[in-house]
User: Which sequence fits this backbone?
């Protein structure tokens, strides 16, 4: 076997450029690019290797390590986990800045490859600049913090270690069951050391994502449970996207006459005009889906981890005969909550389960009931999100103005805060794949950074980010990134004076307004922020509007713009769409005010409805 002498950094980059993946039968790069902020821990060796291979592996400059990684994560989500971005930083604050992003990827089951610099393997210069020392463990560095928020971690202390480590990292990131972030921590000195690598290590490798078929016994048991149900519903999660199982979901629901609800992460896996569409379910869901959930005797969950916002903290299923069938590639997710697990790919499993069910179908009265519920809820949403002359419009009215004037292919992006729930209600999908959010970790600042990644993955579509003033103030530098890379975004800033959705929760739990809204925080000089002018200072177009009619006209101008366009509007911090599901959050067990007593009563009422033993 022939060998090639390369530095560790050059070998790593060369290996990554040789990884390909089949997407719809076409061979594409598995790693389409890297985001990097260089420092002393990664610039001299890895940085030079990336520069010398910039045609095969383009490197994009970031402005903050967390946000550049969030952009890479969003790109992978938009590509349905078929392509993976790289994020590299120096040792120290650069690497620890990426840990929040790693948690986002971990929580949402999304791939990204982190390549942070690390301290010296030889330890001779210790302690090096930006090293966090542990007095009783000299081998521990700040990069060990990644271990709790990645699927795979390795520290490279010898150049030949990448031969075994990189393939394992790739396989985990492409595994539909174990998918998540990987971290290869690169000792600074080792990056520049040479090794005689075998030529075969650099041969082109073409990957494909496997589709594990379900076990026959699990299919049989699931089919028996389904056939014994009278009023089942489907819960469509993000896994339906990653499996590309939208057609199978549609066919299954129509053949067996089962209404379909959607998680926030699975929203737009079905269009609003589908005969069995019920809309979002749970804590951010609508009354149509939640009223049906309260009556259902069986939920068939497809590609969802069934988090608390989906299940209403498990108080949403009130039928005493309720059962659960859970279809998931991940054994861990499929076997939660006392359900009948079916471990397998959603696309394959829905087809095989449908065959096992044969011609069995639910009585049509159940789906008709769901469609009646949906009609009533849509009328409510249309009314609440319609045109208004009120001085401060609500979130729903602002979103409604954009929705009415958007194209059916436009993609809405949200993340943390109250906008997630309002957008998911108003932005009823007219096309598939037109709603993207980050709700697994609910990370403030994803809105703009994530929208950039989604735009990079969908260059021919309009990407609209809805962001509150709180998230905007947290991180906004990717407005500049979008301008200098010609990745146009439309950003709607809904300014309600602080963290209004948490203020809402604070009041709901019987507390007083404190430290959430700017007006209730410790301030001596409350200065209004001119978000439009701020965006203009970064090269974007921007304007402040003062009414819904002005917002609609501004959005039309934004659609015609060739570069990122930021529209800011003041919104009401107290007006929200009606909630329809319980969500458990901390509540004082010893109330001190009448408001506390009311909150405790509602808390205990919800607790009493929770499904036990989950």
Assistant:
């Amino acid at each position: 076997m022939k060998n090639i002498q390369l530095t560790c950094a050059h070998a790593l980059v060369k290996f990554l450029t040789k990884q390909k993946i089949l997407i719809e039968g076409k061979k594409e790069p598995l790693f389409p690019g890297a985001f990097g902020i260089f420092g002393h821990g990664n610039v001299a060796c890895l940085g030079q290797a990336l520069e010398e291979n910039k045609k095969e592996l383009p490197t994009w400059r970031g402005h903050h390590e967390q946000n550049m990684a969030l952009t890479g994560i969003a790109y992978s989500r938009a590509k349905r986990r078929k392509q993976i971005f790289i994020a590299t930083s120096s040792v120290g604050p650069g690497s620890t800045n990426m840990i929040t992003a790693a948690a986002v990827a971990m929580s949402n089951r999304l791939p990204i490859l982190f390549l942070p610099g690390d301290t010296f393997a030889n330890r001779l210069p210790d302690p090096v600049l930006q090293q966090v020392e542990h007095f009783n463990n000299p081998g521990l560095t700040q990069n060990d913090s990644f271990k709790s928020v990645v699927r795979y971690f390795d520290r490279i202390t010898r150049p030949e270690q990448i031969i075994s480590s990189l393939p394992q990292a790739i396989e985990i990131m492409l595994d539909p069951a174990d998918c998540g972030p990987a971290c290869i921590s690169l000792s600074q000195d080792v990056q520049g050391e040479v090794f005689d690598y075998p030529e075969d290590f650099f041969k082109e490798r073409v990957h494909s994502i496997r589709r594990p078929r379900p076990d026959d016994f699990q299919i049989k048991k699931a089919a028996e449970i389904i056939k014994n149900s009278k009023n089942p519903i489907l819960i469509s999660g993000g896994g339906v996207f990653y499996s590309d199982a939208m057609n199978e979901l549609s066919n299954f629901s129509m053949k067996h006459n089962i209404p379909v609800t959607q998680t926030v992460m699975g929203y737009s896996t079905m269009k609003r005009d589908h005969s069995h569409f019920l809309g979002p379910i749970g804590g951010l869901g609508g009354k149509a889906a939640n009223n049906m959930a309260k009556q259902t005797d069986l939920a068939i969950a497809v590609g969802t981890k069934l988090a608390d916002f989906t299940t209403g903290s498990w108080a949403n299923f009130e039928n005493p005969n309720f059962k659960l069938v859970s279809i998931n590639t991940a054994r861990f997710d499929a076997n939660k909550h006392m359900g009948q697990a079916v471990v397998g790919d959603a696309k394959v499993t829905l087809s095989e389960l449908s065959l096992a069910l044969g011609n069995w179908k639910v009585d049509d009265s159940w789906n008709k009931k769901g469609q009646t519920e949906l009609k009533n809820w849509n009328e409510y949403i249309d009314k609440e999100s319609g045109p208004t002359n009120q001085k401060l419009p609500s979130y729903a009215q602002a979103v409604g103005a954009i929705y009415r004037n958007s194209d059916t292919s436009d993609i809405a992006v949200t993340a943390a805060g109250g906008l997630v729930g309002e957008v998911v209600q108003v932005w009823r999908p007219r096309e598939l794949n037109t709603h993207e959010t980050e709700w697994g970790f609910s990370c403030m600042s994803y809105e703009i950074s994530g929208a950039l990644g989604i735009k990079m993955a969908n260059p021919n579509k309009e990407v609209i980010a809805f962001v509150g003033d709180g998230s905007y103030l947290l991180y906004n530098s990717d407005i500049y990134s979008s301008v200098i890379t010609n990745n146009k975004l439309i950003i709607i800033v809904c300014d309600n004076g602080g963290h209004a959705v948490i203020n809402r929760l604070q009041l709901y739990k019987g507390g007083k307004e404190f430290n959430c809204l700017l007006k209730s925080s410790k301030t001596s000089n409350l200065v209004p922020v001119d978000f439009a002018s701020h965006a203009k200072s970064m090269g974007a177009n921007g304007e402040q509007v003062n009414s819904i009619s002005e917002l609609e006209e501004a959005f039309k101008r934004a659609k015609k713009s060739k570069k990122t366009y930021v529209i800011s509007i003041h919104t009401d911090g107290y007006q929200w769409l009606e909630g329809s599901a319980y969500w458990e959050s901390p509540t004082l067990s010893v109330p001190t005010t009448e408001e506390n007593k009311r909150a405790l009563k509602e808390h205990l009422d919800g607790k009493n409805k929770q499904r036990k033993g989950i």
